[in-house]
Amino acid sequence: MIKTEICKYCGDDYVPKRRGAQKFCSNSCRSLNWKNKQLIKGLKVPALNSIDEKPVLAENPSLQEKMSLAGIGNAAAGAAIAEIAKNIITPNANKPATKKDIDDLKAFFKARYYIVKNMNRDIHGRSAYYDILSGNIIYK
Ligand SMILES: [Zn+2]
Questions:
Q1: Which domain range does residue 128 map to?
Q2: How remote is the CA of residue 32 from the centroid of ligand 1, in Å?
């Protein structure tokens, strides 16, 4: 039975040429691992293939403050956008009538006829009205 080891970089099984001394499956993994370590040391960024390392977050209170303020703004904007989207998506016919809608409707029917000021009275002396329901000019 051939003893295999697990590459410390890529995690693949490999058959070591010299057991104990070899930690990586290949020269490229050894070299990539070394480069990764330098990157972590130098830039304090997590390596792409690193499993153990957690991302190092920048400790910058002012930045975090800005981010949370932006978050509140974004949340408010998000709610407004959601409301607008709902209004766009919901067809008018499916929206519930509000008290205002009913009042508007009452006012609308009260003012069905609008006097037309640039038309003369008819031979009976009646004024011209525009009927907003039928779209006709009528005299009354
Ligand atoms: Zn490897």
A1: 96-139
A2: 9
